[in-house]
């Protein structure tokens, strides 16, 4: 007697098995899709929480600086403060670095970091002595260079300038002359406020940051104080 395929609702056994296999594959794929999207969702949520914590800590640091109560650090270190809200106490989101710190930018009547030449508007550069200020045995220019190398964008002002400047490019230090050449991101910030057609003149003070706070995981998100 010839074998006959068992039929189920008009389907042969082979067709039924194929349909079950396809359904199983679709179910597995759908489950994997859900798992991947859940992982992405939780990852984004964790990233957002970390970013919000960093922003809250940075805001706290700024308030401390404004009230002249921000404590100086030894080198670069994760910011910790007993005055922080409890949910931020164990966060490792923000690194604080002391540059000038709470000391005055002036030494007697002479600016500590004065322009040694006129700011160059066309090249977008200015020059100071790299060791016009030192901290922990390192010159201010070398400390700034180390921060920029991590991706931190520094901001500063210039006496008689038109606005704040930012630096994201490496600082060039001439070992024989001790001169540091700084290239700013927007040359227009180097214009003299009294005569915008020229750069700020030699002898004017460069108002470099006292402190720098930046997101440890994303150094480009920094605050120069």
SS summary, helix count:
2
Give the strand tally: 16
| Rg calculated over all Cα atoms | 30 Å
Summarize model confidence as the mean pLDDT: 80
- What kind of sheet is the major sheet? 4 strands, antiparallel
Contiguous low-pLDDT stretches (5 residues minimum) are 1-8, 36-48
What would you call the structural class? alpha+beta
| Relative helix content | 25-40%
Beta-strand residue fraction: 15-25%
Strand order of the largest sheet: 3-4-15-16
Distance between the termini: 94 Å
How would you describe the shape? globular
Helix-strand topology string: EEHEEEEEEEHEEEEEEE
Topology (elements, then pairings):
Layout: E1 7-8, E2 11-12, H1 13-66, E3 76-78, E4 94-98, E5 106-107, E6 110-111, E7 125-129, E8 134-135, E9 138-139, H2 140-149, E10 154-158, E11 165-167, E12 172-174, E13 179-183, E14 206-207, E15 211-215, E16 222-224
Q: Could you characterize what this model shows?
A:
- This protein has 225 residues and is α+β, with helices and mostly antiparallel strands.
- The protein has a domain at 103-209.
- Helices cover 28% and strands 23% of the residues.
- It has two helices and 16 strands.
- It has helices at residues 13-66, 140-149; strands spanning 7-8, 11-12, 76-78, 94-98, 106-107, 110-111, 125-129, 134-135, 138-139, 154-158, 165-167, 172-174, 179-183, 206-207, 211-215, 222-224.
- A four-stranded antiparallel β-sheet has the order 3-4-15-16.
- It starts with 6 loop residues before the first strand and ends with a strand.
- Residues 1-8 and 36-48 have low confidence and may be disordered.
């Amino acid at each position: 007697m010839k074998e006959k395929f068992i039929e189920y609702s008009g389907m042969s056994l082979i067709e039924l098995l194929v349909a079950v296999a396809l359904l199983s594959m679709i179910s597995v794929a759908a489950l994997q899709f859900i798992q991947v999207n859940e992982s992405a969702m939780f990852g984004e949520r964790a990233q957002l929480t970390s970013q919000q914590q960093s922003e809250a800590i940075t805001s706290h640091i700024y308030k401390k600086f404004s009230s002249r109560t921000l404590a100086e650090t030894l080198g670069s270190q994760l910011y910790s403060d007993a005055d922080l809200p409890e949910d931020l106490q164990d966060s490792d989101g923000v690194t604080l670095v002391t540059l000038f710190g709470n000391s005055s930018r002036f030494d007697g009547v002479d600016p500590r970091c004065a322009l040694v030449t006129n700011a160059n508007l066309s090249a977008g550069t200015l020059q100071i002595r790299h060791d016009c200020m030192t901290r922990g045995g390192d010159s201010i220019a070398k400390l700034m260079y180390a921060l920029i190398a991590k991706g931190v964008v520094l901001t500063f002002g210039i006496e008689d300038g038109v606005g704040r400047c930012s630096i994201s490019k490496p600082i060039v230090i001439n070992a024989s002359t001790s001169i540091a050449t700084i290239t700013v991101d927007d040359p227009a910030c180097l214009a003299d406020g009294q005569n915008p057609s020229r750069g700020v003149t030699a002898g004017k003070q460069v108002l470099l940051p006292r402190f720098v706070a930046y997101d440890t995981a994303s150094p480009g998100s920094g605050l120069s104080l």
